[in-house]
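Entry for the shared binder. Reason: the reviewer on the internal report wants the predicted structure included alongside the sequence.
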Amino acid sequence: MKKTGHFILFFMAAFLFVSCGSTGENKKTQQANYQVVPLPSEITMAEGAPFVLSSSTKIVFPEGNEKMQRNAEFLADFLQMSTGVKPGVSTSTSDNNVILLQVGGIQNDNAEAYQLTVNENRIVIDAVNEAGVFYGIQTLRKATPIGNNISVSYAPVVINDAPRFGYRGMHLDIARHFQSVDFIKKYIDLIAMHNINRFHWHLTDDQGWRIEIKSYPKLTQIGSQRKHTVIGRNTGEYDGKPHGGFYTQEEIKDVVKYAQERYISVIPEVDLPGHMLAALAAYPELGCTGGPYEVEATWGVFDDVLCAGKDSTFLFLEAVLTEVMEMFPSTYIHIGGDESPKTRWEECPHCQARIKELGLRDRDGHTAEHYLQSYVTARVEKFLNDNGRSIIGWDEILEGELAPNATVMSWRGMEGGIQAAQMGHDVIMTPTTYAYFDYYQTQHTEDEPFGIGGYLPLEQVYSFEPAPDVLTAAQKAHILGPQANLWTEYIKDEDHVEYMVLPRLAAMCEVQWMQPHKKDYAGFLHRLPQLLALYDKLDYHYATHVFDVMPTLTPNFDTNALDVEFNTIDSAAVYYTLDGSEPTASSTRYEGKFPIKEEAELKAVAIRENGVNSKIFSEQIHISKSTYKPIELLTKPAQNYSYTGAGMLVDGLKGSGTNYRTGRWMGFQGEDLVAVIDLLEATEVSSAEVRNCVVTGDWIFDASEIIIESGNDSTFTVVDQERYIDSNKDHWADVSVHNLTFEPVTARYFKITVKPAVMPAWHPGKGNRAYIFVDEIRLE
């Protein structure tokens, strides 16, 4: 999480900005670069002399328009921050040396469209409305080079631009770890710079209630404080430090106003009926059991939820939401709806009476309790609809019956959003695989701040397509837009928040803003350093993996080798070693793709002329008799965990640690893994190694049985078979390595079967077959 501002300054000096001599005493002139993030729809360069920003430049706005005055003042401050030059702000126009802000001069069906025109005498930002002018200002700001006391030359241009999606969201969870009002405002400025117009503020959860509700004061008196916080991933050890905080209603209104001035609508989330332990700790009578309850100090999903059978629950919700509506003018109120177990409802006489009263029953694969949650959602929706508001809910609200006017926020993949759009409901796409910024940004997590796990690199964010082609054009119209989420179970401080968001938010904003056929990841990487220089100027903390060596390691089953390729964002020279020694400028220089056929410890580094080198990339390549040999899967892995297919099981690259989402571990959901490896000729084998990733909290268990069979045609004979019993009585996470040894057998084909366990009685998934995650299968 170390800042690398000096690196970016060196990088930018060498790569982006061109000095154009000097004008006046100690003042350098630098050229603006319109290749910004997000990239505008149309950039048409024109002939003529440039516009030169100077201390005599005026920013002109329409008299009597407060929003445009504020836009003008924003632009003046932005330019001063970037260049040291602060133009004056005025309503009096002139023919020369002005930046003119205006609305109504262009026609466009997109309400956020703008046009930015530059000639020798003036810069004009014209838009359909004031928000469009603001986005034009952001483009001009990001095109402006960074320096002190500099003069900027803007080449003649016409830029026409408009966003693809009307909903462009960013989320922040402050229930798990509270953040100050000042930081929330800084966060709003950060997302505004990326042309985002929705801030999804997750304000309540099991671990804390963060919003003042005057009719229920104990929500903040009790619910905003937890006595301590678990260390690590539910280790059973605690830090011994109380954690708490909440926002007063006046602070909330101040934040909402601050966001509105930047054309951002704040969408509050009050998660219900689950994730309510903080509220139950304050008002235990709202639960099924009556408590006692505590504000939760660990992470996960908990059985205690609001009682759907008590009328007092709905009086509580309506009172809370009434005050929420008074603070938040947003059309949307997010009511959660996710991860709400039905355990208590199944046993609660109040809930069972409500089920009977409503005539609910098990049907269509859902229990009566699922339909009870649908009733809660629909009742809350009607209350909000009657008050002119609309609900958003996580995709679990699809289970049972979807509330009539609900917008679905699809997080457990794209499927829920696709289903909702096909049903005619509006959708916000935020799947974990592309939009969960609490996931690690690199596979090499040993030097990263501790996190929840997962793996979401910059390129994967950029590849996100929120409106898949499985939808018709009419159905795609229901995709309001994409959103990125930041959950903060393991993210305590402001710097860490910024580090997890940046620069992935830059990739997401191009997904949100640009038409898909105009996106280009290589072009994005070329434009990104200019934005990172602005991050440095604003003192944002961001991840710098984009400047590291980017390896591509591909098993080649034709040559039985691992093909290695290296790239860098700036085509820096890369040097590598194969013996584990630290690479230097004296090591082998990378000249192009090369194969590895033997055991190796590969290390590589980018060495730049400015003396700032990348982190060292390191990878151990493990070779066995099965490595790079043809392999066929006879069973199907889980859709989200098949990655590059069967070859990854024999590619010589081991999945490391318990982060099963890095693309190194192949996952099977309740299914056996059955694979056949072709050693290409009869080969003597006397041992096998199979590695399992185990994260029981995510329903991933060790293998229950492994079977090794050999054959020279379609007939196989068992050569070894081992069963395993997991004796653990609680959650655990580790890599389990199974070594099977047997009498030497000579054969061409080997069949490997790995069977999942049945989850034990202590686990919430008891009785079901678990996931298994496997990588690397080695035969020796």
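Summary line for the report: Confidence is low (pLDDT under 50) at residues 2-6, 13-25.
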